[in-house]
Fold this sequence. Notes:
Elements: H1 7-11, H2 21-35, H3 45-66, H4 68-78, H5 92-110, H6 114-141, H7 150-180
Amino acid sequence: xxxxxxxxxxxxxxxxxxxxxxxxxxxxxxxxxxxxxxxxxxxxxxxxxxxxxxxxxxxxxxxxxxxxxxxxxxxxxxxxxxxxxxxxxxxxxxxxxxxxxxxxxxxxxxxxxxxxxxxxxxxxxxxxxxxxxxxxxxxxxxxxxxxxxxxxxxxxxxxxxxxxxxxxxxxxxxxxxxxxx
Length: 181
């Protein structure tokens, strides 16, 4: 049996940032029919416990792989590039680029201003769109990469993921400021 921590192996599908969603759903439903505890109510307690474990694994695997953000975080953790609870370092050049935006946020916190809010929100949206467009070819082509090229792609994806999370936090702050005014 495949490593239960490897959700892709669990479903028998290739590791991908853009998996075939229909195939994923079919595998999820097939595993659900195989492992649902109600179908094993008359089997041994050991088998019932194993089917419950498999059913839980199936649910966890599907929820993770069906959501693009969770799938990306899962793959990065799976490859040891993201640790739960660890403060990850962003590239210094990105942080330098964010200084002006952070100054705008501090101004908004002190003194709400619709024009500054709109400017910051527009800037964050443009940065996000540029970031997404830049990583899309890497995500789409990851599955076809030779094994020796995947580590470099994973590093690019990790950097993208960290930047994206940073921008999402800024968007959340902007939403909070907008709700206050």
